[in-house]
Amino acid sequence: MKLAARVGEVTPSLTLAIAATAKAMKAEGIDVCSFSAGEPDFDTPAHIKAAAAKALEAGKTKYGPVAGEPQLRAAIAKKLQTDNGLNYAAENVLVTNGGKHSLYNLMMVLLNPGDEVIIPAPYWLSYPEMVRLADAVPVILPTTEETGYKITPDQLRSACTSKTRLLVLNSPSNPTGMVYSPAEIRAIAEVVVEKDILVVSDEIYEKLLYDGAEHVSIGSFGPEIFARTLISNGFAKAYSMTGWRLGYLAGPLEIIKAANTLQSHSTSNICTFAQYGAIAALESSQDCVEEMRTAFADRRRFILDRLAAIPGLTCPKPDGAFYVFPNISKSGLKSLEFCKQLLENQQVAAIPGIAFGADDCIRLSYATDMATIEKGIDRLDKFMRQYI
Ligand SMILES: *Cc1c(COP(=O)(O)O)cnc(C)c1O
């Protein structure tokens, strides 16, 4: 079968594959400790589920406006104003099938063949693939443990060419958990304006911050950067709504309108009654978000303390999301082999850093219960000691 060239250039998601293998092993009765999850382990808060159930009962079962229910778009615009200092109207917001879809829509309406998109590494693995699917060119900017896995303004400046259209910024980051400080974000904003490129800020983990870390939206530093900013966000991580498929893209009207047209010919509106769950999420108390964050904070503290005691591992302290990204290079193994052996010999599932452009590291998600973390880290400790 001859397939389109564009799919030949793209690799399937390695994280989903490992998570699936771990799940299959569990189903066979094998005692697997999985750190592979890219989603919160909590159920969706009850009041959000109730709002969607009520909408379903009330007959919110028909096609709706492609860009989303007006009440939801307005609630998102209000959230972006109050939480993030971004002055968007409801018409600047497009409701999408998750943050992934909002980023995909953006790449498809923005990029021409040969356009360059700057992606700091380690990166969320879908960014470069989406850029390739849009026939554009991902330009990867490497970072190191020493710089806290952050790019510098100079590094960004020298990566810009006449073909650069877009920078992808993800803070707090998946996979490293690092958070850019407000001053660092401001310095990057200055380069974006100076080079007259666009930036998409993937803020899906903005609510998951620890030890006093602060999230600032890059578009909030004034009109010049605001005009060059797109925000991708969603309900998956903050409200534990991964399966609902609810996200949004916000930005300049011209881009949002084009993405709306694209969406009108691809997915149409997002599940109508699900959108009422999202309205409840935004308009009700945010206590549920804080409860989940507190649970993550306890696990983070625990896993960092335990990892620090494993010989040969180094792990910078992440201030956000629910991942740690230890360096495993002292084992002498590359990340894929490390994760394969770890799963086979110790029944611990972790994601190889190579999936995120960092072959010396592995990603451990602590979006799992404390008992699993404890047992899994014991096993990782044992595994690592074989090599040291
Ligand atoms: C989870 C995630 C998303 C969005 O996920 P959706 O389920 O599509 O909303 C976007 N970016 C990053 C970095 C993520 O980890």
CATH superfamily of the largest domain: Type I PLP-dependent aspartate aminotransferase-like (Major domain)
Strand content: 5-15%
Named CATH architecture of the largest domain: 3-Layer(aba) Sandwich
Report low-confidence residues grouped into runs of 5 or more.
Answer: none
User: What is the helix content?
Assistant: 40-55%
Which keywords apply here?
single chain; 388 residues; alpha/beta; Aspartate Aminotransferase, domain 1; 2 domains; 7-stranded mixed sheet; binds pyridoxal-5'-phosphate
Helix and strand layout, with pairings?
Blueprint: H1 5-8, H2 14-27, E1 33-34, H3 46-57, H4 70-84, E2 93-96, H5 98-110, E3 116-120, H6 126-133, E4 137-141, H7 153-159, E5 164-170, H8 182-194, E6 198-202, H9 223-226, E7 229-234, E8 247-250, H10 253-264, H11 272-283, H12 287-308, E9 323-324, H13 335-346, E10 348-349, E11 351-352, E12 362-365, H14 370-385
Parallel strand pairs: 1-10, 3-4, 3-5, 5-6, 6-7
Antiparallel strand pairs: 2-8, 7-8, 9-12, 11-12
Helix pairs in contact: 3-11, 4-11, 5-6, 5-10, 7-8, 12-14
